[in-house]
Design brief:
This protein has 228 residues and is of the alpha/beta class. It contains six helices and seven strands; from the N terminus they run αββαβαβαβαββα. The chain has a seven-stranded mixed beta sheet with strand order 1-7-6-2-5-3-4, with helices on both faces.
């Protein structure tokens, strides 16, 4: 059981995980809390905040099991696109109604796999002020548990140079079951529950890093409090 989409190469996926696990350590000081909370088996929908291109790669490498992420389709051109498909990642077009990637993700979940989603849809402040409904749809279609993951420190500050080897914090929350009601109303309600839980986890991480609420939008990469 590979728990990957058809056509993926399990051995290359594992190589990619290794690169994600060690490849960023020269550039960042990574601090991870809650990794033991990741369910080792069974269907999981991982939801994470998103403020830079680095977070997906770091999370992919740090997870203790294989994972399939929904990745924006624009990144699937040329050799990079071949590589992403080969390691089992799924392209999704933002702002378009396309059930194909979601159907692929549901098949992975029903096989007992883990699927990662960035419910904000696009990169932003990473505060999870809004969320799209894909994660809730996946949960409703598969019965997966939800695993929130927050990260901070990857975003490059706009007003100054990045610090040398900035601190990047990753906080894995508690997995939880989610009942998703029928119809659009059920999806909307469940999506808001996912958004609130993830936003709360981001705020918890901000507090641990010593970042004031009004400073999040301009948080310098690598600034950190004394928490380890």
């Amino acid at each position: 059981m590979t728990q990957l989409p058809p056509g993926a190469l399990p051995w290359l996926h594992d190589v990619g995980r290794f690169i994600g696990r060690v490849g960023f350590r020269p550039a960042f000081r990574l601090r991870v809390r809650g990794r033991e909370r990741v369910p080792r088996t069974g269907p999981v929908v991982l939801v994470a905040n998103h403020s830079s291109m680095v977070e997906p790669q770091i999370i992919f490498g740090l997870l203790p099991r294989r994972s399939v992420f929904l990745v924006k389709a624009e990144l699937f051109g040329g050799i990079a696109g071949w590589g992403l498909r080969a390691i089992g990642q799924v392209p999704v077009r933002r702002g378009e109604v396309d059930r194909a990637p979601l159907t692929t993700a549901v098949a992975v979940l029903r096989d007992g796999g883990l699927v990662g989603v960035f419910p904000e849809g696009t990169r932003g402040s990473g505060d999870v002020a809004a969320a799209e409904q894909g994660a809730a749809w996946l949960v409703r279609s598969s019965g997966a548990v939800v695993l929130p993951v927050a990260s901070r420190g990857t975003r490059r500050p706009a007003d100054r140079r990045r610090r040398f080897r900035p601190v990047v914090d990753v906080l894995v929350g508690e997995p939880y079951p989610l009942v998703v009601g029928k119809g659009r109303a059920g999806l909307a309600e469940a999506t808001e529950q996912i958004r609130v839980r993830l936003a709360d986890l981001v705020r918890e991480l901000d507090a641990a890093r010593g970042v004031a609420p009004d400073a999040r939008a301009s948080e310098p990469a690598g600034e950190s409090g004394s928490h380890d």
